[in-house]
Amino acid sequence: MTVGLMTHNTPSNWAKAALRMLRVCADKRVAEQARTYFKPHEKVALLGIKTQKARDIEKEIFRAVKPTWSIQDALAFCDTLIRNRYLEAKGIGILLLSRYQSRYDRGLFETIRGWLADGHCANWASTDAMSIAVLAPLLARYPGLSKELPDWTRSANLWVRRAAAVSLTPLARKGKHLDTAYGIAHSLLDAPEDLMHKAVGWLLRECGKT
Predict the structure, then answer these.
(1) At what angle do helices 11-25 and 87-98 cross, to 10 degrees?
(2) How far apart are CA 44 and CA 40, in angstroms?
(3) C-alpha distances out from residue 15 to 78, 82, 111, Å
(4) Which of 3, 58, 78, 93 is most buried (most C-beta within 10 Å)?
(5) Among 112, 98, 5, CA closest to 60
(6) What are the counts of helices (DSSP H) followed by strands (DSSP E) for the chain?
């Protein structure tokens, strides 16, 4: 697989290229298998791309854009793909943005909340990928932002609430933000969704390891 040379090295063009590459690799059988990881009522659009294949596509795109792209380019690329209906497209956008974590600014925090609240990560897989790969490194870079997470637990949006818990799991594993993590877990204990129960259990397990 090769992305070739891109005449106009823009985030929009690369997002279109990523979608073309994904469609070439689409496999109905892989999509059917992946669908079993979601509840019947969950509306998740799948092309059917194996995880390693999707990572290979993202890696090839990053190799091509790395010499010239800024964090703004990576953010625009992710913004385009996160709005695409297909799970695999969202994943590639998130993965590429995660490579720029040393350049994150505080404003990304509200951008992520907007993506979640607007339904662009409306499944556990996209929400968790965003939380672990992008939001957690952002919290590590700007620790003060963790004080704003408790407000997320009061959101009517399931994915905003889940991200509040899941984003702290890598940090809690290292013994960081434990007071915030336990406070968030306490706030979410009575959540009606089993997806929240699992997220809180995951967070508490990581807290308990330290």
Answers:
(1) 130
(2) 10
(3) 8, 10, 19
(4) 93
(5) 5
(6) 13, 0
